[in-house]
């Protein structure tokens, strides 16, 4: 377990979410990826990627058992002395108990997605999480995710944005720190989301083709940007390309740092 107290790490993450500067979290999936990112002086917090942890265990995204999800998160918490915010899918069968267990491992924030459940059900699940957080007595940061855009299907994007704002406002009213809206990449989508949720309340994914640079997102009032499974994909591409080069008679590059 890291030396800084869990309460202090929770307050650190809260301050990072509330700062004027956008928080960029580079998602990790195991102890060595976490330690590698944490060693960079620019790193202020660590975010796990549920998709990547699932892939590490051989599961498709969203199908990993809770026991494995928490085990993967624990290895990351134990590897760093920074706030860790965990991707906990939809919170599983009992989102409040999932959050209690995550807090017990040292986690100080989490993404929990609504998977576009019926509005009232989605809000009730967020309320249950916040009630559990209040019982634990730390400044836990819920980055409540709505899939209003990602799972919006063929409805007009304006309808998906309105749905994301309605859900996001309800999540914030219930006590969430931020609202994560995957698929919000362009100015045309981000601006109305910030208008509806308020500056410093929107969390988005970055790195995908067509996504605004972080500096522009900060100007628009986005609070946080994360990179999901893309970081692992880049690492795996490097591994694949090296393997192909080695099979072709290549060698390990002489400037390869001993990061592990």
How many structural units, i.e. domains?
1
List the uncertain runs: none
* The CATH homologous superfamily: Phosphoenolpyruvate-binding domains
Q: What percentage of amino acids are in beta strands?
A: 5-15%
Provide tags for this entry.
single chain, 260 residues, alpha/beta, TIM Barrel, 10 helices, globular
Describe the protein.
The chain has an 8-stranded parallel β-sheet. By secondary structure, it is α/β, with parallel strands linked by helices. Helix 3 (50-57) crosses helix 4. It has 10 helices and 8 strands. The two termini are 19 Å apart. It has one domain (6-247): TIM Barrel.
Please write out the topology.
Blueprint: H1 6-18, E1 23-25, H2 31-38, E2 46-47, H3 50-57, H4 66-79, E3 84-87, H5 95-104, E4 109-113, H6 119-136, E5 141-145, H7 157-174, E6 178-180, H8 187-197, E7 202-205, H9 214-220, E8 222-226, H10 230-247
Parallel strand pairs: 1-8, 2-3, 3-4, 4-5, 5-6, 6-7, 7-8
């Amino acid at each position: 377990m890291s030396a800084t107290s869990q309460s202090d790490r929770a307050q650190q993450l809260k301050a990072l979410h509330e700062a004027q500067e956008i928080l960029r979290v580079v998602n990790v999936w195991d102890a060595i990826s976490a330690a590698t990112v944490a060693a960079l002086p620019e790193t202020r917090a660590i975010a796990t990627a549920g998709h990547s942890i699932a892939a590490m265990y051989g599961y498709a995204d969203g199908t990993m058992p809770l026991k494995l999800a928490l085990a993967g998160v624990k290895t990351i918490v134990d590897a760093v002395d920074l706030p860790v915010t965990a991707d906990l899918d939809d919170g599983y069968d009992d989102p409040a108990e999932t959050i209690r267990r995550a807090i017990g491992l040292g986690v100080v924030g989490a993404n929990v997605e609504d998977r576009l459940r019926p509005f009232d059900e989605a809000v009730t699940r967020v309320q249950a999480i916040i009630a559990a957080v209040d019982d634990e007595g730390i400044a836990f940061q819920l980055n409540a995710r709505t899939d209003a855009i990602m799972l919006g299907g063929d409805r007009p994007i304006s309808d998906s944005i309105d749905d994301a704002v309605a859900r996001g406002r309800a999540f914030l009213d219930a006590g969430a720190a931020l609202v994560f809206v995957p698929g919000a990449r362009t100015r045309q989508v981000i601006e109305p989301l910030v208008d509806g949720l308020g500056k410093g309340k929107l969390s988005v994914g970055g790195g995908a083709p067509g996504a605004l640079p972080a500096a522009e997102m900060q100007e628009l009032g986005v609070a946080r940007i994360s990179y999901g499974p893309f970081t692992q994909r880049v690492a795996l591409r490097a591994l694949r390309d090296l393997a192909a080069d080695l099979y072709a008679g290549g060698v390990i590059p002489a400037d390869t740092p001993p990061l592990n």
